[in-house]
Amino acid sequence: MVKNKTSYLFLLLVFSVSSFSFSQQNKIEEKKNELSNIKKQISNLELEIQKKSRKEKETYSTLSNYDQQSFLLKKLIKKIREEERLKGKEIINSRLEIKKLESDIRKLKSNYSKYVVSIYKYGPINKWSLIFDSDSFEQAVLRFKYLQKFSEKRQEDLKELKEAKERLITVKEKLQKEINEKRELAKQKESEEKDLLVKVENSKKILAAIRDDKKELKNEVDAKKDAEQKIKNLIAKLIEESLAKANTDKNVETESKEKSNSYNIDLSTDNFASFSALKGKLNWPVTTSKIIRQFGENKNSRLNTVTLNYGVDIKVDGDKNVKAVAEGVVSIIDWLPGYGSVVIITHKGDYRTVYSHLSDIFVNEGDKIKTGSLIGKVGESLQGNILHFEIWKARDHQDPVVWLAKK
């Protein structure tokens, strides 16, 4: 019975280790595929630009292309940095393991050396003579047990010494591999950062060339119209995910749950303060309060067109830092034509805030953030540094002016 139980526990341990290793391997493959997909997207976007003539390159379409490439490159660099950090931790752990193994080997060698020296000085131990020379039966039994334990310990030491040496070789090889991989990551990061600088510089040149072009300004306005609908769709997707999660058994990992939460992050807002209580005293996302495009219908005097705005556009001068207006969880980070880099934060009570047209993003999907936490920086459009900001209550867009504190 005991033997069967031991065998069962052993098999369970082997299965657990195998499952863990398989899970880790899956995660590594997922990360590789994600990085590969980002690189592929960047390559496809670059190919689009290369097909254009010099005149065609000076358009809002190309500017948008470079902006999307910059977004993807920043995402790629962030992931490489995270991989680099994790690889650094692995290197530290491997070095610590090597240090411990070398210490263990020294101790095992020392113990075995003492045994060898003893044999050299006094000759090999004749266990039978020691037993037969005993003064009593009890003494003979004790000597026999001692010699048996001594022999077993010596064999264990030899086995441990061999295993420790083999493990040391394996870990040293693993360490060298980790060091080489970290170097490759550093080279890759440096290459992507150089590429990013080129994209940013190209964007600036195109922006300067088309800033006063009415046609390109209209293209930007049209792109923003499409972006409004896409933001609405993203909000609807988050609501559906939230409802699906609420209807799923918390203790069971079901297939429907995996499908419903495509972002695979915890959107729970149970521990957050009330968002609705902040109406009329909500912090501004930026230090300035110059709204150039109001909530609802807006007429563009240059284009003589009327557009619908689901939020407000805030002109930013000076400090370009964008901060969370209330505590919440970062639910989506995406890129949309017209509004560029977009961050959506979920707050308590089915409220969400949207921050669009960011040049840099300092948060990750799933981050729990506090009021005033730095989200990113405002990017530059044809109209200057503009932050597009929205507030949603479930599927209803709210007028941010009613919510924001008076300045």
**How many H/I helices?**
8
Classify the fold: give the CATH topology of the largest domain: Helix Hairpins
Topology as a string of helices (H) and strands (E): HHHHHHHEEEEEEEEEEEEEH
What general form does the structure show?
elongated
Q: How many discrete domains? A: 2
CATH class of the largest domain reads Mainly Alpha
Calculate the mean pLDDT score and round it: 80
* Percent of sequence in beta strands: 15-25%
* Poorly predicted spans: 9-18, 251-263
SS content category: alpha+beta
The Rg value, from CA coordinates, equals 33 Å
Query: How would you describe the oligomerization state of the chains in this entry?
Result: single chain
Biggest sheet, open or closed, and with what strands and sense? 11 strands, antiparallel
The number of distinct β-strands equals: 13
Q: From the coordinates shown, what is the CATH architecture of the largest domain?
A: Orthogonal Bundle
Helical amount: 55-70%
* CA(first)-CA(last) distance: 78 Å
SSE map:
Blueprint: H1 2-50, H2 54-57, H3 60-122, H4 127-132, H5 137-210, H6 214-246, H7 255-260, E1 290-293, E2 296-300, E3 305-309, E4 312-315, E5 321-323, E6 328-336, E7 340-347, E8 351-361, E9 368-369, E10 374-378, E11 380-381, E12 384-393, E13 396-398, H8 400-403
Antiparallel strand pairs: 1-4, 2-3, 4-12, 5-10, 6-7, 6-9, 7-8, 8-10, 8-12, 11-12, 12-13
Helix pairs in contact: 1-3, 3-5
